[in-house]
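Now for a sample.
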Amino acid sequence: MEELDPRHPEWPDAAESEQPEEETASEAAPEPAGVRLRWVLELCLPLVVLLLVYLFVFRLMLVSGTSMLPTLHDGELIGIRLLGYTPQQGDVVVIRTEKDGPLGGESIVKRVIAVGGQSVLIDYENDVVYVNGVALEEPYLHGSGEDQSYRENALYIVPEEEIFVLGDNRSQSLDSRDPMLGTVPVRRVTGVVCLHIPLKSDT
């Protein structure tokens, strides 16, 4: 039998027969800096937008107390519009009290009765509030406004850049009638109530 000489051209090349298979796996290339930056922006941008909205445009707050019955009830949720608001008579507003004052920086909800330059006369005997001599129609009041703390008729002159506020539940409200609060500087008004979300039944 004829044997093939290793040097014979028909003999397989040893180098070719022993050549390892080509590696198919490779390390993942590092992500470009631009891709990472895009991810960071996509994650952070919504949070920044929400923060700006909360600080300057709109926020939700929880009502605590009964001074605004029947308009607002304890435990209800309200939405506050902040940006570009100027207090107007009849508006329900949130006020940020002075931190070093008697209320210790507490936020309170009241109704604007008069603005700077107007006069307020409260007739307790007839349960009527006059602004610049004109009686207010107040269908939002909770029963009688008579309060044992305020028995004598009183006249108030509202300074410029301030507002006079009352609670709708007059007998249970600490408001501009009380020296603890008095007339409120406009700069202390957080915003106007523009959304009311009841969380409890009215029973």
